[in-house]
Amino acid sequence: MEKDNSRDASWRAALRGAMSAKDRTAIERVKMPELDAAYRVTSRSEEVNQGISEEQAVTEATRCMDCPDPQCVTGCPVGIDIPGFIKNIQRGEFGEAARVLRMTSALPAVCGRVCPQEKQCESRCIYHKMKRQPVAIGYLERFAADRAREEARRNPAPHRRPAPGAIKVAVAGSGPAGLSFAGDMAARGYDVTVFEALHEIGGVLKYGIPEFRLPNAVVDDEIRALEAAGVTFVKDCIVSRTVTYDELKQQGFRGLFVASGAGLPRFMGIPGENLIGVMSSNEYLTRVNLMGAGLEGHDTPVLTGRTAAIVGGGNTAMDSVRTARRMGAERAIIVYRRSEAEMPARLEEVHHAKEEGVEFMTLFNPVEYLGDERGHVRAMRVQRMELGEPDASGRRSPVPVEGDIREIPVDLVIVSVGVSPNPLIPASIDGLNVSRRGTIEVDEVSMESSVDGLFAGGDIVRGGATVILAMGDGRRAAAGMDAALKQAH
Amino acid sequence: MFRILEKEHFSENVMKFTVEAPQIARSRRPGHFVIVRCGEGGERIPLTIADADTERGTITLVVQQVGVSTRKICALEPGDELTDVVGPLGQATHIAKVGTVVCCGGGVGVAPLLPIVKAMKQAGNRVVTVLAARTRDLIILEDQVRPWSDEVVIMTDDGSYGRKGLVTEGVEDVIRREKVDQVVTIGPAVMMKFVAKLTERYGVPTMCSLNTIMVDGTGMCGACRVTVGGRTRFVCVDGPEFDAHQVDFDEMLMRLRSYN
Predict the structure, then answer these.
(1) Which residue does chain A place closest to B231, by CA atoms?
(2) Contact B254 A238 (CB under 8 A)
């Protein structure tokens, strides 16, 4: 195999010359094989997207024009060499494709499943200029990453240990930001320890994103790859509570990357919100995903309902509503105060939710929940909205239609209107600059905070974003901390 | 890692465990709690730390068998391990010298009360401790609170030990008899509700410690939310201690029945 992966490599030039642009663009975009919607709502654990075959992957990779100035790369928060990995798929070097992915992404099998590609890499694909569907970059990423996972299961990589005397750095939180940082720092030769508060490694990838979209086994494979690269994981340990930043320094850690995520779920502050059967999406998803509520051998209970209303229009709302369908809700309704066009959720999630029979009540906003004599929610009152002038986010802001309030019977309500940063670490470190919203303030390039040696990224900085943006933060923080530690040396 | 070193039966359903958890033992303060999980597939449940020994690296947990998870824990013996213990969580108790403090605990609530009794005494307060239970066998930790209390009042519903009567009667007697500057109450929600009602009438500042349903215990899920002074607060990060006069106990009692 020719090792050079640059665009000038002879094998890539040969692939470009092997087919005319006309023939290339005539190929239809691959369709992701999916489980049938009627079947999949009966299965909690089976992944909806089944993954594309080798043949499909090679054909899809052939569509990529291998542009001289690939715009897709600029749309990727971690700057994956997209044509580099895609062309390796086309020439059948799947392992090499995965290696290219790993150079910039610690979690390619995760990103291939949960990234909003239509807003990132795929949105910049040259095919849009030809009014054609973009190259299925996400599907290809997943294909190559899954091949590498299977290979690693057959032939586990030997565990590398950090070199003796390697500089020790700590990470608070094992979600996407923390894992991405850990991968990059291990690759740079640091001795990395990741501290996790929960009893499982993976953060939101485990407690938040459901099995049918991101199986825990996939996350575990990615974690094993990081362990093989020399990263140490410690669960049941809350940086700031179990062990303080000062204690970490005394233990020889020279830097701390805080990636403690979005803590507190937001509620709307409307009457009846504390009734039984009204809960945050964090609670609902954690009970189901992390704690295995309702599964044999798992003690954690979860409330189920015949009619579930999920308030919100983001990915978490879609995960919750689709989970509710799988947990037996006959009616599962998205209640969203803007119109579908403004929904922040990935298109695929909205599409899948609709296939699974989820109802969409857009331009409605809850104003009150009503309970029965036992304090259990039995109905919600919703205010009809219409779109007014654009707000600060550029989206048209919803305004109430006077007098148009309706009551709908519900027995389960999942509130999914966002989260606030986890307060534990910001509250515990003197001299740490924290915004009014509770996020840690950092330098945008280096991700360093106002406290020496303390860097931060992901939702604790952004207040609520995506897996891939968190991963981008982890990468930048790794570069930032590496530079700072080298300078200090 | 979280090995059980000792187990002591306080009563048929209440047991004391000494658990190896050196980091937590070092970091904890009175009022803190831990989240415990017993067995793969186990629930995460909050338990208040009753005591800690930094030299031995142990914490003390007092567990009452009431549901699936507490029964699993109570079935453990010395040498066994808890699957997960994480903490210390919550805000530590605000300890200050205020004068006379009445610490009243009901049932298993005496366990989390013990470190507060101790700290209140060490801060220089006169401490009157009121322990209450249904019957004599359910009075726990009496010997442990005695050295840190100027006076211990025992109340039992059936009169089998101490005075016959409710915890509120014991507290009211003290308030009528002498100037009380603060009351601390920990126990079943319904008990704390009536203690709060009583002390509100006498205008005595009262602090309670709430034990609500939790999942993660770190602020993430919101299962533990309570209304305090008209605002929704999270017991795990804002509490577990609150101004008892501001807590909506009826709502809390309702929410405790979520899974019944």
Answers:
(1) A269
(2) no
Q: Residue B41: its chain A contacts at CB < 8 A?
A: 292, 295, 297-299
The 3-state secondary structure of A55-121 reads: HHHHHHHHHCCCCCCCHHHHCCCCCCCHHHHHHHHHCCCHHHHHHHHHHHCCCHHHHHHHCCHHHCH
Fold classification of B100-256 (topology level): Rossmann fold (3.40.50)
Q: Dihedrals φ, ψ of B130, to 5°?
A: -110, 115
Q: Do A78 and A471 touch, CB atoms closer than 8 A?
A: yes
What's the CATH architecture for A168-263+419-488?
3-Layer(bba) Sandwich (3.50)
Contacts of B37 in chain A (CB under 8 A): 199
ipTM of the complex model: 0.94
Q: How far is B40 from chain A (nearest CA, A)?
A: 8
Per-position pLDDT tens, chain B of length 260: 799 999 999 888 899 999 999 999 999 999 999 999 999 999 999 999 999 999 999 999 999 998 899 999 999 999 999 999 999 999 999 999 999 999 999 988 999 999 999 999 999 999 999 999 999 989 999 999 999 999 999 999 999 999 999 999 999 999 999 999 999 999 999 999 999 999 999 999 999 999 999 999 999 999 999 999 999 999 999 999 999 999 999 999 999 999 88
> Class for domain A267-415, per CATH?
alpha beta
> What CATH architecture applies to the domain B2-89?
Beta Barrel (2.40)
